[in-house]
From TrEMBL:
Keywords: DNA damage, DNA recombination, DNA repair, Endonuclease, Exonuclease, Hydrolase, Nuclease, Nucleus. GO terms for cellular component: nucleus. It comes from Melopsittacus undulatus (Budgerigar). It is found in: Nucleus. It comes from the Eukaryota. Residues 422-467, 498-509 have a biased composition (Polar residues). Belongs to the DNA repair metallo-beta-lactamase (DRMBL) family. One of its GO terms (biological process) is double-strand break repair via nonhomologous end joining. The gene is LOC101877266. It holds the Pfam family DRMBL. Its main location: nucleus. This is Protein artemis. Residues 622-632 have a biased composition (Basic and acidic residues).
Amino acid sequence: MSRFGGRVHEYPAVSIDRFDHDNLLARAYFLSHCHKDHMKGLRAPALRRRVESSLKVKLYCSPVTKELLLTNWKYKFWENHIVALEVETPTQISLVDETTGEKEDVEVTLLPAGHCPGSVMFLFEGENGTVLYTGDFRLAKGEAARMELLHSGTRVKDIQSVYLDTTFCDPKFYHIPSREECLKGILELVRSWISLTRNHVVWLNCKAAYGYEYLFINLSEELGVKVHMNKLDMFRNMPEILYHITTDQHTQIHACRNPRDDDCFRWNRLPCGMTCQNGTPVHLIVIKPSTMWFGERIKKTNVIVRTGESTYRACFSFHSSYSEIKDFLSYIQPVNVYPNVPPVGGTEEKVMQLLKPLCRSYRRNPEPRYKPLGTLKRACKRDLSDTDEDDLFDSELTAARPKISKQQREESRPSSPARSENTGGNNDESTESYRTTATYTSLKEPDATSTSNFSGVTSNQQESSSDVPRWDTFFKCDRLEETSDIEDNFPSSADAGGSQSLFSDSDGVSDSTHISSQNSSQSTHISEQGSQGWDSQMDTVLITTQERNALDMSRGGSRTVAVSQDTTKYTPLDNSLCKPLSQNRSCVHVACDLKSKDTEKDADASTTCVGDGVVEGSDNSRTTDLEPRRDSQSSSDFEIPLTPDAEVPQPEKLRCLYKKLAAGENIVCEKRVS
DNA sequence: GCGATCAGGT
DNA sequence: CACACCTGATCGC
């Protein structure tokens, strides 16, 4: 819930995402996306009167946001006052005071925010400095570095203030599985269910909000089954979405809604009322997209959790995780940062403590100011072999959308029919931010896996350790994520087994069973850490009794029936989102639903291993699975020894290391092999 | 009757 | 957990 008041200090003449109270007097309005909590006052009588009696009052937003907004008749009065700005197209705007005639010019640029269709961030540039308002955003690690318009030449712009989506700005939300991971998990679950029979139907229990469209599009494209929705009119000018959704109930994937949803699936009834196809009752499972998060040291991420006989939760987040926020902010390195959202459990002060260290102004004595070292990361083709399964775990590699020119994008289109991208009319950008590619950019910054800049390090600690060279004294850099990634990339048991765990059972579900599938090296993996009850690590997707019956697979005492589905059968239509998927020879193991005490035990074990308090400063030693985690903020400047026995670098060594890095020499970092 | 706000629900 | 809503009750105009 956005608590942003609508004004930025530098340009108080504009109101953004708030339209009530004193925002009524703004010279111009900006709407970052079409979610109600960012539209407060937008159709209030007072503002409506002003709009209707003025020719000058304008609302600036993306073309898709304009389209979605005007679908609702309650906002029709804005129609002649909305200016749709193309994304990534700097536009000069004159802010004129209607009463005094005072004028102020500001250049505004819309940047894709990856939150929902049409969602953007606003970059304001003018006399009072450069200001970035993020609205709500979900950007994968490294995406800021690929946004050309955040750069001037090859360097990141000098940004005075960032008004930041801090929804998940808390270390306990350290990691949220990437869009691609989540999509893949949902895709495989839906696929495994609806391919059983024509009567196997999935209901996606989505909220009444924009943001799930790319999920629908991808499911439809991969499975050839359109998604049922209550209404489609808001997408009437977005053929790329429209094509994949339908009002025809006779489809196997539903995202329809009904006020009395809960009664609906009580027994095989969909919100739209459908109960059977061709006279045969449907077999229904419910997938509820929810945010799942993991602490810093999670090694594997299950994105599907079974919560009941035929109910599942699937990881889905509209907002950036803590590590993504940190990556974003530490790349931008503004002078100031202001949270748009007070953190869930915490206070604004607490969030500021986390964010301030990522800002330039954090330095007490304003040293000669080094501009952020971050340089625009150009696209760099990477040879992705089919065996490179790590990619799936590394959001930086798979989720990163290299900044490529519009022309390049156009060129790539013929061979890549748009999937999660709207190409209809002027709404090209609507889901553009969801596009990912299999390319990644070379890291021009030294890959300082031996250093990190912890946001949890206090000012005092930093000042006092003056004899220890600190990377961030000279360079903008936040390597915690990278190192964490490396950790994440260590081949896990699942990797060794040649398949990835996408699913897990929720503990506390008594009648579901985990059956360790796959090969002998692939034993049950218990999360060493998670923050929720549902992240016990299972390598098997469990399908219900219903399904077993449907499959007629009851085979006496046979505990496991594995139905392998080769995901390499995907025929990606482009090399963006699908590529990572098609590379992974992931198997979905469908196990019969048998009771097992072991499962509950496993789940219990998992929860006892949960470390809720993810700390900023982390331990120097690598914890192994099931080893109690040692949370420590000591020696927090030095994260990530590459081996369990690695030591904290000594100052001399560190200085030497910095020198090398500063000189542009490569520091070789090897991934642990076993 | 409408809107704003709050509580409670998913 | 929390999101982004929705509904319903209450209050003020």
